[in-house]
Design brief:
two-stranded antiparallel ribbon, 2 strands, globular
Length: 365
């Protein structure tokens, strides 16, 4: 028999599956336009569209239009206007210098979240991501869409086939499932025995997806997130030492990503380069061939297949020192605030993302 304390709050799933009547009545135009903006971008990303496709452009432009309407209707204080204008200028300068749109989306989301409920946004995100993620897989299984199949040397078995199940790449398939898990846990927040049951079931699903994607990156990072969440939920109280360890995740990952490829030499470099699947070697090339500037600069010409596959290095080189420092400071104070408020679901997601960013371009997703 499952006891009350095992399931935590009785009816947690039923209540989080729907908005209350009061929430519907109280939705104003600002919220509506923000939800339309967020939905446009998330749906465009969720169905696997990429830059250059017509539908992608339509989705982005529609989202931008809804964002403008939301911002126009929102009241900001003089200080908020100043900070928003400063960040807007810095983001736009970085965009002009590099052509990278990620920093613009990052700024738009930050500015647009004024007076918006994070929980409602995650509820909406869960609905959209569930529909797009499982919808793409279903369409593929029905034979309606084509599948990207890659042959890579993996698992010590020689060249094996990796399937994307309708997504742009097998890695995208695995990471999309992890994002689904984050949406699920933040919205439902199962406690007690249900926390372990749900984690176990979602991990089984993670393993199933891995059989197709064979994505080391996505699978390992999903395990990091699940372990972080289970540990934080299990703990009755977070000690000061644990709090310090959580805050150290950010500087550790950032320093490892930026200083490691340059400072580490010889066997130590080779060990980390192998663990991170040659990412240290890629980061070293760009860190030693490109100047670090205040406002960002386009990437230097590199040998074929040389790309930055680390969010910290990408942010520093593409967006410049000023924006990099702002983003790192924002993460630092956000973690500090959530530790004080004992918001463990948020901390688990942040820990997962900070670790992810060492080996994938997820800085502004």
């Amino acid at each position: 028999m499952i006891k009350q304390e095992d399931i935590g709050d009785v009816g947690w799933m039923e209540r989080t599956l729907k908005f209350t009547l009061q929430e519907k009545i109280n939705m104003n135009w600002e919220e509506l336009f923000f939800y339309l903006f967020f939905s446009s971008l998330l749906f465009t990303k969720g169905i696997g569209l990429i830059e250059g496709q017509r539908l992608y452009t339509i989705g982005i432009l529609a989202g931008a239009g809804f964002w403008v309407l939301k911002v126009v209707l929102t009241r900001y204080s003089p200080a908020e206007y100043f900070v928003s204008a400063l960040l807007g200028v810095l983001s736009f300068v970085a965009f002009l210098n590099t052509g990278e749109k990620g920093i613009l989306f990052f700024f738009m989301l930050l500015l647009g979240m004024k007076d918006i409920s994070v929980k409602k946004v995650f509820k909406l995100g869960l609905c959209i991501w569930t529909f797009t993620f499982f919808g793409i897989i279903l369409i593929h299984l029905l034979g309606i869409s084509n599948d990207l199949i890659l042959a890579h040397d993996k698992l010590g078995l020689g060249h094996i086939l990796r399937y994307s199940l309708g997504f742009p790449h097998p890695n995208v398939l695995q990471i999309s499932y992890v994002i689904f898990m984050m949406f699920f846990f933040y919205v439902f927040q199962p406690k007690g025995k249900w926390a372990w049951i749900s984690a176990g079931l979602l991990f089984i699903g993670d393993c199933y997806i891995f059989l197709y994607s064979v994505s080391y990156t996505g699978f390992v990072l999903s395990v990091v997130y699940l372990i972080a969440r289970c540990y934080l939920i299990m703990r009755k109280n977070i000690t000061k030492f644990e709090g310090v360890c959580i805050q150290m995740v950010l500087p550790f990952c950032a320093l490892l990503s930026i200083a490691g490829p340059v400072v580490f030499q010889g066997k130590l470099f080779d060990i980390f380069n192998k663990i991170l699947n040659t990412r240290f070697n890629l980061s070293r090339y760009f860190l030693t061939h490109q100047k670090i500037t205040l406002f960002g600069s386009p990437l230097v010409d590199a040998p074929r297949h040389f790309v930055i596959d680390c969010s910290y290095v990408s942010c520093l080189l593409l967006y410049g020192v000023i924006l990099f420092a702002f983003i790192m400071a924002a993460y630092f104070f956000m973690i500090r605030r959530y530790l004080k408020e004992d918001r463990r679901e948020e901390l688990a997601i942040i820990i997962g993302i900070l670790v992810w960013k060492v080996i994938i371009l997820l800085l502004h997703s």
